[in-house]
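Aim 2 progress update. The chain analyzed this quarter is reproduced below.
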Amino acid sequence: MGTIDNLPPLREVIRTHDLQARKSMGQNFLLDLNLTAKIARQAGDLTKCDVLEIGPGPGGLTRGLLSEGARHVLAIEKDARCLPALAEIVAACPGRLTVLEGDALDIDPLAHLTPPIRVAANLPYNVGTELLVRWLTPQDWPPFWLSLTLMFQREVAERIVAQPGSKTYGRLAILAQWRADARIVLQLPPEAFTPPPKVSSSVVHLQALPKPRFKADATVLSRVVAAAFNQRRKMLRAALKGLAPDIEDRLIAAGLKPTDRAEQIPLEGFCALARSMAQT
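Predicted structure tokens:
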């Protein structure tokens, strides 16, 4: 394992570089290096992997990933104020950390990474869900990543692992659980962050499956799930009537009751419906 004990404490780094977290950028910094190391360990064996990190800020999780033996870390940071602090970590770990300045939504990281690849990040709150959906819905599967170890607001984490019948069950659960094993591995209170957010946070670990759990066309499944949960209080026959004139027949062909609601339908049922919808 690499050691980077010669770097100053994170609170000192923040004072030195005047890195006050900005709400406009969804920033809440984790300064406890014991916690960041614990999060890094949840990502699995990093010693033979490149790691993609989004929004490293002053570099707390970055240090954890490197200390846990990551072969190489690519950190994408939008806030130019954080670059000098990250440069100190680059200097302490020659050849093991690359920092790109820019918006993670606009950057293709694959030119800078060598498989196998894991993703680990304390995601900025304002882009976390969008990035997750992108990583879960590539055109080809398996994806570029072996696993995602990501920090979210607790309510988002609960939506990712939700089961049918719960109020949090919806599109995010379907997308995540169709192609990955998803579980919450850590809970963090607001006071773990600087500044403390108004909500608790959770770390979710998603392990990519070699192939989806059930056969379905990704585009059709996404369209069906979006329509069903956009009107989740309605029966399926009403919520999905815009997708096909014979929607009741297709629901029955998929083994579903037209009078059921979206939150009652398990993943396998949505995949069966997607297959039924794909038939001409």
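The CA atoms of residues 5 and 68 lie 13 Å apart. The chain has two domains: 10-208, 218-278. These observations will guide the mutagenesis experiments scheduled for the next reporting period.
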